[in-house]
Structure formats: C-alpha cells, structure tokens
Amino acid sequence: MNNTKVEFEKRIEEINIYFQLLITIDKGDCHIHCKTIDGTEKIESIDIELIKILKANGFLLLYNLIEATIRKSLEAIFSAIQLENLTFQQLSDKLIKLWINQIALPLKEGIDAVTYDKIRGLLEDVAKSIIDNQIMQLETECVRISGNIDARSIREIATKIGFEQSKDGSLLETIKKKRNHLAHGEFTFGEIGKEVSVNDMIRYKDSACAHLTDVLKNIEDYIASRKFVK
Fold it and tell me: What is the pTM for the complete model shown?
C-alpha cells in the first residue's frame, strides 16, 4: 500500500505543477519568452484557444489520477491477500464472489462462445482449486473499472470488496463525463475548455484529491485489519 500512496502523491505533484501553469496564464495577457539555440530571443503570445485546450486537458489528468489510484489500490489489496497465502475457505464471502466472477469472465465473450466444454472446464478448475486448497489469486479484471470511474462506482467497488465507503465526491462524475467526451471525440478540447474557468478546474482537482485520499485511508485500514479474511 505504501507504493500506491507514493505514486498517488507523485501524480498529485505533477497535477499541481500543471494547475499552477493554468493559474499563471489566467492572470491576464501572457506571453512565452523563449531563446533559440543561436541565442535569438522570441516572444509569443498565448492564444485564448490554447488556454481553453489546457483547461480541458486538466480533465484528462484528473481522470487519469482517479482511475490509476483505484487500479493501484486494488492491486495492493490483492497483493496483500496473496502474501497471506489464503485459500478459498479462508477468503471473506465478498472476495469469494469476486473470485468466482473472475473465473467466469471467459463466459462473457458472447453466447456463441459458451459451450458445454468451456463450462465443464471452468467447473473443474473451481472444484480443483477448492479441493486442493490452492492459494487464491485475484486480478483487477474481476472488478470492471476502465473508463467509468466516479464516486458512485468507487462505492460499488467498496461494497464488493468490503472496505468502508467514502462519502460525497459528486464532482468526480463530471470529471468522468468530460474525460469521456474528449476520449470519444464527442467534443473538442476548445468546446470543453470554454465551459469552465480555472477556478472551476481547481475545485475539481481539490475534490478529486480529497476524495481519493479518504478512499486510500479506508483501503489502508481494510488491509491492516485483514478484513479480507473470513
């Protein structure tokens, strides 16, 4: 869990550097003062469209922070479980359900892919794991998170795994939606950026950081208390 927290803080430092730039260029008529290799000085004004693009890009940075933090947190939980060498009988009921979901994932490939042999093979694998007291290994894929993480989905993950839910975090939904608009090409960066001020972006940043900090604390408590054990 320490590595997860270190990476979280590193990402926040990067985001703070970026947002400090947004604050600076938002103060008025700004220019970039450059010196070329031959020593020639060049001054370029910062176009207002560029400012819009930079603000919109902030949503990508914030969503990346959210999804990466949750993914790394899940990895920390599952690593802690593996280090305990826990078997099926020792896992909490919630994690047993997740493990079964993980085993059954191949069946989600489509109805045409569900065959008798595949179902029989999966049942054999489950039975063998239980009978032989094999060490349980959970992967992050057992919790679908890609592209759709917000406060509500984080609380759903908390319910599935068993750590305490964090409250509020309503602004994370807007971050997710804006990121998806950009990622899917539904709106341009300029269109997204013109809708928000730098102060708005700072509010989104502070809300995301505060919510994730609380989530990490709850997960750390979950691991320390070994709540993954039956």
Answer: 0.85
